[in-house]
Amino acid sequence: MPVDGAGSLSLERVIQRDVRALRPWTPPLLSRLITFNAIGLVLIVVSWYQVSGDLTVRDQLAWFNVGVVGLIVSGVGNGYWLLSGRSHIGRARMMVLPPRAKRPGDGWGDRLAEDLENRPVAAAAMTRYHRPSCPMVAGKQTAATTRRAHERAGRLPCELCEP
Amino acid sequence: MDLYRWVRAQWDRALAIVATIVGLVLLIVGYLGVSDATLPTEQIPYLASNGLFGIFALGVGATLWLSADLRDEWRKLDDIHRDLRQEREERAGVDESAQPLTASGGAPRRTRRAG
Fold this sequence. Notes:
The complex is a heterodimer.
Chain A: H1 11-16, H2 27-53, H3 57-96, H4 108-117, E1 121-122, E2 128-129, E3 143-144, H5 147-152, E4 156-157
Parallel strand pairs in A: 2-4
Antiparallel strand pairs in A: 1-3
Helix pairs in contact in A: 2-3
Chain B: H1 2-9, H2 11-36, H3 40-97
Helix pairs in contact in B: 1-2, 2-3
């Protein structure tokens, strides 16, 4: 199943690669997650301890902010863990499932060109409009336009080609 | 025991559920504590303990659950990769067995012509 296009992979090349090398997480990432969460937890515990011992709102809020910082540190660690796992899995998916080959007709421009090519045709004096491939217009000088424009000009669809 | 087996197989999801429940309980207890307290100096310790710990536990639970999802996805990719590799090896084995004997050293048999 060879795939055409830049950066594409044939099935043989995909199989030869080792997806196991792209585990979602590595030990350094795990240690980073644990470190961030440990720092966050320590800051929250310190904040709680200090807030409980203070008697003024001002001091309590100052230490409460320390706890909020701990929460942010922990959130950053968790977010980094999830994003790196997501990224590794995305790369592994690209490795296992090669990109789909682009087929003609996939793009918007291709569809537009196809639509323009298949617009019904008719000559000025004709009372019916036809597909471009209809034998009734073969060799005749015709102009292509939309179905609606043909109907506005009083033409009916051809019974033979049924455009 | 099905639950025990599930917890062993899905330890990360089990931990995520526990962390989420703990977080919710902490938040509810904190809310009740703050509601009962009248002075701000009594309310802020509830925020610092139950509020922050509760949110921390909810964050850990969410991270564990999403990690489990990602790990499942990776396992599925690994399965697909293993199947593809196995299929290729089987195909290579069939190709080798289909080769003629001459390729592995055996001489083709000749027919003797008369005359």
